[in-house]
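Same chain as my last thread, 158 residues:
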Amino acid sequence: MKLKITPQFPLHGNVTLPGDKSISHRAALFSALAQGTSRFENFLDAGVTRAMLNALTQLGISWGLDDKTLTVEGCGLNQWKIPNEPLDCRNSGTTLRTLAGALVGTNTPAVLDGSPGLRRRPMGRIVDPLRQMGALIYAADGAAPLRIGKRLGRNPLA
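reply #2:
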């Protein structure tokens, strides 16, 4: 049996989707990598996304959160500040994994650490490919803390 629906008139309206953890992480990170001001509505303000925002602060990225609107002042690929302390990813694997790649790409040395639970998660699936691309990255027993070193030479993303 087939059912065929033929619309009689176009559908119009607006839909607001709930904030999403994965998209919010990436929106913050990609904004930090860009140059200039980025603005995102419906940013998910949660513990895991705050871990990302706090790490970006340590990397010299300015941001503001007004209700659910995130504004980030990105400084490009070559202007991230070297943090004085380990970046605390809390219990956010997404923060640790995405920041590791961004730190390697921006050639910013840093230590990524987190909660005892995060320290138990295997990190070989990100460490090994980054090493194959020439990254200086070290994982304590294959898990956090991750130590990312500065490569000599040209930034491959610049």
